Batch of 4 targets.
Target 1
Amino acid sequence: MHALARARRTSLALGGLALLCAGALAGCGGGGGAGAAATTAPPQPRVFIDLLAALPTELDPADEQGAAFDRLESSLAATLVRPAPPPRSAATLTPPEEVVGYLASSWQRLAGGDYVFELRPGVRSAFGHQLSAADVVFSFRRELALSASARLLAAAARIRLADPVTAIAPRRVRVNVTAPSTLTLAVLADFRFGVLDSRAVLAHSLPGHGGAHAWLATHLAFYSPYELSGFEPGRRLLLRALAHPWLEPAYGRVAIEAGSADALRLADLAGAAASHTSGLGPGAFAAAAQTSGLLVATLPSTEVSTLVPDERFAPFASALVRRALSLALDRSEVARAAFGAFGAPARRPLPAALALPAGLAEPSYAHDPALARRLLAAAGYPRGFSFTLAGGAGAERGAIAGELAAIGVSVVAPATGAGADAQLLSASAPIASAGLWITSQYLRGAPGNLEGFDSPALDALGSALITGTARTALERALAIIYAQTPVIPLVEVRQQLVSRTGIEGYAAYASGAIYYDRLRPS
């Protein structure tokens, strides 16, 4: 079985290279008869092959498909601005308001907090249309109409939901806000505010919800220097640099592939059949670090593995019980067992990778099984209880179960197909983003508040939290979250960098994105 699977994985990498080269002027080493030697062939485009653990099945940026979708769309989207890359040696991400221009050549903040952006001249899409202010207006309005995540981001940045952007000249737009916010630029760097070729999208729109959703599910319409040259849902996505791109990428072809085991992806990388991979398990990541010809490192990340007690079910409705679970868990052990070298125990409510205000007082999580048992008894569970644990990897579930057994709490694996009805959800997924508005995930009615957590005291701080300007309010909010424990942070999962040597341009971003047009041979 290993040989058969390995052959299939190898064919994926080589097949991606072949498909990328198909149609190129020089082919992929192809000759063409006796006359070929007398002709000087054009230079072949450089090819970058990225092997991922998973790819989404659709590409419409208004979709909600989870972490793999968000990372891919972040890598592909063309936004007005992008996050500024931190130095490779930095322990934290750049502050959220630090951005660099992408489709925007310059911008100005007005007195009331609005931003005016000048669009780059000469930017054309794969469909031949030139970037205009009308594209920005269309794209923002479409995304806000279809995506709850986009609306949450816009609210965090104080962007007007009903009137988010105004075209004030053919290449000038104003982003409209209800109040000044330190997060406006950060949110505009998110893929949810990518700019689509409105004329191409409208040409493929159909009556009904989403308009051109069916077309955008299998096509890219961003104003990117790349065009989509192939897409197999969930398996492979191929990019080709435009014939006359507004930004000349060093890699003229990009293949992004998924669907194989860690060991096979690592074998392809070690054999120079691929350029980069990520999402490796602890064993494969450790093996990569011992493989010659590879660059292996970890980068700052806001991704946190969490335990989320569903408060709609007893005993999790009790804050004492939730606090007891947190105290019972040895986060260092969970990190070691489930994530190895790229996991670190989550000691505080906010990830260490965030650049926090100087002097911010954050509560810290302790490991105290004796206190956990006393809290369980006070909550009416002196002999513990059992619950269903859904989600998470096997090693993570096993580590959690082992830690909780010490206080009499037993973990039951969900039956097949019962994950949606489980009494506890455990997800290795981001609970933080590029700003301090993470706490607004717990506000009443927030799309990210999936478990129904409600704290009137926290809700009262909502305005100050979303603007991100009041350190005292943030400290009070973190204290509420610590005491109420709506979610239990376990492990801060650092971003993996596993690449062939000789490639530059990688950096740590909150989204986990790789901006392929920033990569270059060293």
Note: Residues 80 and 103 are 5 Å apart (CA to CA).
Target 2
Amino acid sequence: MIITLNKIGVTTLIILFWTKLASADMALTESQTDSLKCNKASCYVESAGSFLLTAKINSTVFENNGIFLEDITDQTTLSIQIGDYIITKFLGQANKYKLTKSSVTASWIESQNVCTSFACDKTKPFTFTTLTVNGRISGTSTISISGKNLSTETKNGSQIYGSKILAELCKSSKIGATFSKPATISVNGIDLTTILTGSCKQQSKAVKKLGVSYNLTSAKTTSKAPISINALAQTTLINFAGSYEGTYSGTDNGTVTATIANDGTISGTGNSAIDSSYQFAITGHVDASGNVSLIGSGSAGTATFTGNISQGMFSGTWSGEGVDQGAFQLSKLNSKPTIISGVVSISPVANSNVTVYSIVNGSKGIALGTGTTDAQGQYSIQAGFYTGPVLVEAINGSYTDPATGNTKQLKSILRSATVSANGSTIVNITPLSEATVFNASNASDGLVIANITNSILNATNLLGFDPITTQPIDPTQALPQSATKSSLIYAGQLGTVSQYLAENTAKTLPLAIADFADVFKLGNFNINPYITAAANNYGANDLNINGITSNFANGNNMMATCSHVLWCTGPTYLPLCSSKPVTKCVDPNNVVVNGICVVSNSTPITPATTLTKQWTGSWKITFPGRANPSCLFNDGGVMTMNITQNGNSFSGSVIAEGMEARRHSTCELVSVFSGNGTVSGTISGESVTFSMDPDGVTFTGSGTISGGIFTGSLIKSSGGSGTFNLH
């Protein structure tokens, strides 16, 4: 959550999800509290919250759906998802883990250091998630997650720690709004699902502080959510889905065709080879264990078919009226599984958790499979033999932000959808694919095939390519020879999204994507001047090493200065622009810092060039002795700094060779030695200030970083000056 100063005082948000815990039930409680932090000149909001999720499930529920304790190993995956919140763990990764013949216990703890001061110069440990599992071969198994979150503003910008589940939902909803969110517990890809439903209550009031009016809100919601015991079976049924054909034999013989739907419903027809005029209709179902029950109805009467499905074979016996009986056997026509693959990218998002879902009646259905992206953001997930519309979601993972060069975490879900998953299916996941899902899901009837199709078509007509099936190149790397015009344009658009977020700091990624969704919906690149400016400014950004600019910029609905670039094809993408675009800020009060339009005197953008490394080079300084000011010390030689940067602050160690020791009375040089000490400071843009104390002697320094060179001046407080040059 990006904090904006639109609240004051202390606001408490409580969200309660409660159920009577029986054989398979879930309960979630969540609270969120905003408190105002002020000094004499300004205020900022700190938002703290916590949640507790518990699920109590009778072991027979797991066993009836194919989950047995003897199949649990340290490679077993546990995944829990509620709305946009998802956590996926391997048992072997647990902080504590014990597996016996009758039980499994495990716990995971996630923590990090958080800022405790406005300047973010002090931190403390913050445990934001604790997940525990207590499973038994008989009786009730318990899964619980406790979590905390903290969102606050510091001198270095908004800081966000931990995760919320549904805390923001009521906060942003209208009074009396109702909602439904799916919740899934998955063990080794087998899902147990429910729907959390609830209603919101809100209170709001206007308060004035420091001459500024703020709007206070508080909200509360309750929900009940019994888990469907049969929900686990749906994943198995999807694996049976498909078309089958074969023969029946006995007192009559002929051919049979049948189709199994994703819910296990079977329909088909049979044709007699003995009497070509005789046809019969087939109806029935298959259960999660593969047991088949069918009725054949025709002019000659009815027949009952019973059997089993295993490994794509559908076989059994049949009996009709009187003495008619025999056997049947059908084979699946398409035994190839459905495999969903693609890339998760703003730039490629590594180690992102990706889940493929069915879409049922315009809503997200059950999970068909899960996976994790590799270092290039690629994923591939087998979705059984499911065919039809799918929704693919990605959360977590890290990427290099194209506009700032900073490493960021994907904390908001990105989605993509297609209406025809079948066999090998490409589904790329980006902010622009999320914009198409956003528009489709907010249309009447939600994610139905027509809405998904229209939303993708609107984006395709505007962009010139399909944002779901087209794979963008990495905007932070040099162009590969395999790049196409479409993949090049796509990369420029991802850079534009990044630039838009950097220049509009009140926007979160979901809010920014909603703005891009409006562009697709209205079919006009120029409805949002801030998006247009971001497209132009990314073209001018030094981190845009390929010089690409997206077609969100002004000019022939293609781009600003360098429209010819987008038509390049082939392996040679040499200087892409004859002239570089000039960064333009929409707001007159904004200035350009590191290629980003920011509010004048605001917190600087963290530089893309990090100080974290070992810097080595030369230094020299001349200064008078304290006891004998006429005695000049000429320190200098090789200097080495080992620095670790955290935001706009850094610290580390320094070794300064060539420090002199002289006699106070005569100024005679006694020795030359190396001084060890510490170094710390801050960085703003390319400007660096620091202090260091080799051998206990304090020096202050200031300099700049450019082209990998760290250079500047040194001053000793008692007098004297010098220079340093490190790389």
Note: The chain has four domains: 10-228, 241-332, 339-567, 613-726.
Target 3
Amino acid sequence: MAKEKSNDNHNKDLRSWAEDVCLKKTTAFMKKFESDLPADMQKLFHELQVHQIELEVQNETLRRTQTELDSASERYVNLYDTAPVGYCTVNEDGRIIEANLTIADMLGVSRNTLLNQAFTQFIKAEDQDIYYLHSKNLFKKAEDQTCDLRIVKKDKTIFWGHITESIAINIDHEPVCRIVINDITDHKQLEMFPNENPAPVMRVDKDGILLYANSNSMPLLTHWKTSVKSKLPELWCERVGKALEQNQTMEHEIRYNGVSLSLNLCPIKEMDYINIYAYDITDRKHNEIELIKAKELADENNNLKSAFLRNMAHEIRTPMNGIIGFSSLMMEAEGNKKDEYAVIVQKSTEQLLALVEDLLLISRLQSEKISIKSFKFSPAELLMDISKTFSLDNINHNLDIITKIPDQYKDLTILADVDKIKQIITNFSSNAVKYTSKGSIEFGFDIKNKDIEFYVKDTGMGIPKKEQKLIFDNFYRGSEVISHAIRGTGLGLSISNELVRTLNGKIGVSSKPNHGSRFHLTIPFKKIKKGYNKEVLQQTKLNKLNELNILVAEDEPMNYHYIEIILKDIVKRIDHAMNGKEAVELASKNCYDLILMDLKMPIMDGFVATQKIKQQFPNLPIIVQTAYVRSDDKELALQSGCDHFIRKPFKKDDLLKIINEVMISK
């Protein structure tokens, strides 16, 4: 609970911290530059600087992710060091150049003591010739070698070790020998008592006929579909023949019924038969698989994060170039050129702000429990509104924007979380426009049992089959997207996927390269029998804005100035409170028709100020304005008594629309 409270306080202070940093970084030149900009551009330029600082905090989070990747690499090393078998690497001179902790423990020495020591000094003198022979064959034939040797520990005690040698090339392009040692002392002791051996023990002649098998061999024989006095499977007959022919112990692995065994084929040349000793390596194989998975995951995440950071730097610098470049040109331009540059700066600012919002949203979706808020709405009108937006943004004019509404559902009204549904469909649509150079984009929906399916279909480049499951992962961008140098962060579909989970729905895609894609969203819904009547603003109420006395509680002078410019020619009177305490005092002394309340203010914040004002004037409308990004900010504001909520940065039309709605409902 204390940790959650700490996180909340951190989020609350982020904006304030970013504002302070921005203020400290602002040079005299930049102050002069900002003062020459129009008021609304000053606000947007400031918001951009603050959001850039907040974005740097997000980048720091990504850097911490790199630390986590390093931790994964450390776990990889720990798996190697604590493996149930001994691992070491020996150079061509027979000296140990690398060893894990397990082999050091086996030999009763420290790992540092092992390094640069001759491996043969730990082999019993009588068995050293066997090791030399196998090592020679390893480097000569580049084929794995196996043998059983008596290993001498530091305290002169001896254990039997099953040695597996394989060749590898080190970073200096030199051949080295990788050695795996299993302690098989118990196994060797049980060879004299095969029926008591807990693992399979068998004897096979040169023709592959099974001469003997202990009781614990029965599951393996059942798997092989053979028995004593019968022949082994053909593959194993060949392996038996090869071991006898070369008079060399060979090791082979087999897996059945979830068990992994290592079978050691030990030839008795003078008797023309082979003894097969098995030991369970299930745990070892499992650890090896986990080791490989951990390494692959660490590499994949590292590559993905690196690619994302490189792409994000590009996505930030592109609009920043437009903002900084054209802002400086505006200072020299006049007339239509100045207006033209202002539009470019505006669009670049909105583009960068959208990027910041996406980053904050995906972080919030993955770290918080997002609630579902259901409202009545018309699916038909929702799709019509979205399609109109993309019709206006259709820059290349080569696309036909089509909306297909089933006749029987034109007047359908449902109850669902319309905001989340709209964002998902908008993300689908943005991708469709981005990746479709000609043809059409189609919006539609259909009812399937108790679910409603929305879809967006395009005639664009399509998505390869192997990438269709990956496109909903964080930061993933398809190979075609990268090869065609199409801009984007790879967050849109990831955000959609997280939103769908909160809606208890399903998301999917069907696509074929060069033939377009169809993205669909399926969610449960509740049908509303009443027809959908869109709210119509009452014009008579709109005309009364010029009679309003408004109090603006805002500690940031630039933000207040922005609101003042918007409202000064529309309303009757505007008063300014620098903090919540002043707002409470002014509200008690004056008769206001509406209060615009900032949440983050010194002395007394907007939550407390709203509660105190509502206690005195319960019918006085209060609209909360804030730059907070937490999902529960709106709920907390409404609980404190406010009537509406607007998130910074906001546009003039957004503010006027909310004021109209609040005053109409008054």
Note: Confidence is low (pLDDT under 50) at residues 479-487, 531-543.
Target 4
Amino acid sequence: MRIALLVAVVVVVAVAVSGGCAPAERPDDARYRIGGRVRGMWDGAGGLGLRLEGGGVEALLTATANGAFRFPDEIASGASYTVTVASNPASHTCAVDENASGVVAAADVANVSIACTGPEVAVALSGNDGWRFDPALDRQTFAGSILVQDVALTVSGAQLSGAVVDGAAAMLGRATSPIALPLGSRMVSVTVASGGLSKTYELVFDRGGSVLDQIAYGKASNAGAGDAFGNKVALSGDTLAVAAVAETSGAHGVNGDQADNSTEGAGAVYVFVRSGATWTQQAYLKASNTGRGDSFGCSLALSGNTLAVGASSESSDASGVNGNEADDSAPQAGAVYVFVRTGTTWAQQAYVKASNPHDLGKFGTSLALSGDTLAVGSTGERSAARGINGDQRDTSAVDAGAVYVFTRSGTAWTQQVYIKASDSAANFKFGESVALDGNTLAVGAVGGRATYVFVRTAATWTEQARVAAPNQAAFFAFGASIALSGDTLAVGAPSDDSAARGIDGDAQDASAPEAGAVYVFVRSGTTWTQQAYVKASNTGSEDRFGTSVALSGDTLAVGAIDEDSAATGPGGDQDSNAAAGAGAVYMFVRNGLSWGQRAYVKPTNTGAGDQFGSSLALSGRTLVIGASVEASAATGIGGNQADNSAAGAGAIYVFR
């Protein structure tokens, strides 16, 4: 029986062999190739020597460029293999960092990874986005929110001889000029050289690739009910100033007694600084002549190490700079206090008054600061003068309003000009809002239903334009808020009545009382024209969209303090109306000539009546939003947002 069986088997095998042109290869005789990818090698570096050992094979391969490689030799299935670096290219160190060894399965191996490090390269990216350049990656992507409008690169490396960024030569160790980032992706090439070697990196920046992220929740260090912390905010780089216009301490100057509650409505300002991603309070500021009801902090302006604080209800009859602070004979004449920082220490530099102070003048209602130039709005000023440097002694036009421009030389401030609207009249309230960018000044006049633009040549100011909404059949509070950035001007009209939504809708509609709107104007040469009529994506009656505005480059933020959605965080349900007066902020971005809404922003602790959007500040990649009626009794940064035991204490939220 055994013999018969063996014969049968032989016969079967013989039949199998006789079929076809060649014998079939047994599975255990299959052979496969080993390969992978090389990265990090510079152009001109020469060859990278790789060695393959295993399955009876010992082979060498020279890789001359980044990318895929494969040994021509084959290794049998089931055999072990090892890939090592046999020799490094010039000025490089290479290593197998993944899958250096293994066992061949029934397929080619293609996942051996070789990482090469050439001359040291570092690329620092501006901003606080957590972006980290990896010199081992030829192409890398950095995602940012819509706030990321530009990026500056600093290329360095001890062995480098030169660098080219985005087609232009770059100085090693020094930041490039900011490179504009439009919405979507923008690739920036970085080519570095070292001796005869060169390497090009492709850095892809994806603006809008990440959502707005709330990174801080801030409260006063002495949070108290009704203090209205966040009624105004100002931001410059890594420094943030926050006003609490109704704070009640009777302290004077810098870092006084915050626990004192003896002076109702005196007001205070808190200065915070950022280190990395962490915000801490640096100073607690009070007026040098703190007084009951002075409203210190009703306006703020910050530029570098200089901070201006308005107190529109201060009552001294002093005039000019550093006059008699103790005088209280002119109720609500108003004053401005200028503070400067040296190192980490703040001190008051000047006490500023109108050149024609009088009761109810409201000097300090609004402020704008650009370098050594300060503009101050005084909505209650009474002169019937018009234009530049008119008769300040006239008092025949109640609430006509005026703006005063001061300049600093060294540490001394002096008044440069006294400005009135060219068509000034009683109740114009010229100076309700001011914005200053270099030598351009914009002034809102809600009673005059217009905003005026002035320009400075040397020390001479002239009116360049008067802009107004084309649809003002009713009082829309046009000019209640304004923001200026280069040749773009945004004007808030929080009492606009149109029910339109989005961009350039029906401005003639009047079916949504006090819904609010924002008008965007642009300058070409010396001519200003309207570019967009901006409305919320969820327009609602009495939302007061446009109460606050902030503008930086092609990004516009708009606050609607009485919007009613109970949504939390960016991108929530806009149609929820369960939290009356909670407030919201809308983010718009200009792409080319067209504006579009890109984000709908709510805080993490939305509450009815909080008035999120009371104030706005936009600087670089940081957005700060005030909610002056928020009710938590928490103090400092990152406290308990769920607490609601201090009605009207106020809060601020920082987004990136």
Note: The domain at 29-117 is CATH 2.60.40 (Immunoglobulin-like).
